[in-house]
Design brief:
alpha+beta, 4 strands, globular
């Protein structure tokens, strides 16, 4: 079993992949999956649990959870870099 988690933005028919996390044991990935609550409504982001390339489950998540996962996975700073200026 090769589990991973992927965050998608709900753009278009398939969404845009924002980040993937697969660098942990299956128990750790399942613990993260279970710790993230499902949003009460449709949101711009959803989390997908994958086994290899097979879709296992998915759920809509709030922006707060997106930030938490990006921080936990070490990807947060990659999304919020300063734009270069000509000063």
């Amino acid at each position: 079993m090769s589990l991973s988690l992927t965050i998608y933005n709900t753009v278009g028919e398939t969404g845009i992949e924002l980040a993937t996390f697969s660098n942990a044991c299956s128990d750790s990935i399942l613990a993260q999956w279970n710790a993230i609550s499902t949003a009460n409504q449709v949101t711009p982001h959803y989390l997908v649990l994958l086994d290899g390339k097979d879709h296992v489950n998915s759920k809509f998540i709030n922006q707060k959870e997106v930030y938490q996962l990006l921080e936990l996975w070490g990807n947060f700073d990659d999304f919020y870099t300063e734009l270069p200026t000509d000063r």
